[in-house]
Amino acid sequence: MNIFNIFRQEIHKALERLKRVGLISTDVVMGPISVEPPRDRARGDIATNAALVLATAAKRKPRDLADLFIPELEQIHDVASVEIAGPGFLNFRLRNDFWRHLITEILDSGSEYGRNEIGAGRKVLVEFVSANPTGPLHVGHARGAIFGDVLSRLLKFSGFDVTREYYWNDAGAQVDKLAASVYWRYLQGLSMAELGRTVGEVDNDVEYKGDYLIDVGAELAKAEGDKWRGTPEKEWLPRVRAISVEAMKALVRDDLCVLGSEFDNEVSESELLSQGKVDAAVGALELKGLVYQGRLEQPKGKIDDWEARDQILFRATQFGDQVDRPLQKSDGTWTYFATDIAYHQDKFNRGYREMINVWGADHGGYVSRVKAAVEALTDGAASLDVRLCQMVRLFEDGQPLKMSKRAGSFVTVRDLVEAMDKRVGGKLGKDVVRF
């Protein structure tokens, strides 16, 4: 039962009765109206702006029109009274019997109460978390992980065909830096095995200094011995990168499991690149005349390393973005935006016309360009809805905890859940964190 939909239907019926008796012109059409709880709960159980919405078409003042509605609405079986509030809002008070019957229905339905078919089987892809695979999932990602999971469950409960997807940014400079950090731990692992030494200080040039990489390096040393010691980077990098990324993905998957967030599918940025899908997406935009060689103006503010240069640009301004967007870096590799374009085209090619992305609030400035790309690629056939979640902040003794995955100083989702387990007793930490 959806209480508000039921009363919306009753308001429509009341309008038709007023038309039949000649109190309202037959050409008046009910537009979109709100039927919801009143802002002040002391004013009743349900409020509607129907009289305000219809006043102009009915050629009456909103409060006068509301007066006409009251006798009609008070005929509804479960309504105790209807009152006018403010400029013409109608507030319903429901009989106690209505609530008693509703409680009985809820108890009889159990966990199925509220299930509906609003979605009518429409396919929706919800992409969330998508943190870089450079370490465990820290609490900064927790809100997005929970929000995306709950939203997906709610959509599924409402009749949508939902796919929950994780997009791995497993290509580019940050995973090369991860591999270099693991290589350092690998060398330490060899030293530990040979000399029995404990792990020492991390080299300042190593990007990711967290202890979570110690075991990865030790396992690599155990599995492959000194095969990679002293070899050029170009020889060890592909192998160490692959092992490092898979190890980090396993950590993230475990953390998501602890948090109770589930995924149906994973997509890899590196696979999109290797399969030529980025080239294909940019090529598709080029065929539409939406890619050109040009120069961007220098962004506002002082940028020391700014360099004006010819580059491949996407005509994002044709779709509401503030500036056209670069698709290729100075070294010839694709920008993150270019790979994101390919990823969203991949979603579309897999049959998804409704896409929802759950991003951190720090990605707010990125929304317009990705929406522009989706509109351009699909000729408006697909929609992208982006939900931004603020990062979670933790406090200890009244002071905010500063977190850095690269420095290795952060609190993982697992840490937080286990801390809540201890605080509340038993295995309820996950539910506390999700709440």
Describe it:
It is a single chain. The protein contains 14 helices and 14 strands. By secondary structure, it is of the alpha/beta class. A 5-stranded parallel beta sheet has the order 7-6-5-11-12, with helices on both faces. A 4-stranded antiparallel beta sheet has the order 1-2-4-3. The protein has a 3-stranded antiparallel beta sheet with strand order 8-9-10. The longest helix is centred in the middle third of the chain and has 27 residues, at 233-259.
Written as H for each helix and E for each strand, in order along the chain, the element string is HEEHHEEHEHEHHHEHHEEEHEHEEEHH
Which quaternary structure do these chains form?
single chain
Residue stretches low in confidence (pLDDT < 50, at least 5 long) are none
Instruction: Give the DSSP E fraction (strand runs of 2 or more residues).
Output: 5-15%
- How helical, in percent, are the residues? 40-55%
Which strands sit side by side, in order, in the main sheet? 7-6-5-11-12
Overall pLDDT, averaged?
A: 91
The best one-word shape is globular
Total count of helical runs of at least 4 residues = 14
Q: Report the C-alpha radius of gyration, rounded.
A: 29 Å
Helix- and strand-based class? alpha/beta
The first-to-last residue Cα distance is 25 Å
Number of strands: 14
Quick one: biggest sheet?
5 strands, parallel
List the helices and strands and how they pair.
Layout: H1 3-20, E1 35-36, E2 46-48, H2 50-58, H3 62-73, E3 79-85, E4 89-94, H4 96-109, E5 123-128, H5 142-157, E6 161-168, H6 173-195, H7 214-224, H8 233-259, E7 265-268, H9 269-274, H10 277-287, E8 291-294, E9 311-314, E10 325-326, H11 336-349, E11 354-360, H12 367-378, E12 383-389, E13 395-396, E14 399-400, H13 413-424, H14 429-434
Parallel strand pairs: 5-6, 5-11, 6-7, 11-12
Antiparallel strand pairs: 1-2, 2-4, 3-4, 8-9, 9-10, 13-14
Helix pairs in contact: 1-3, 2-3, 6-7, 6-8, 10-11, 11-12
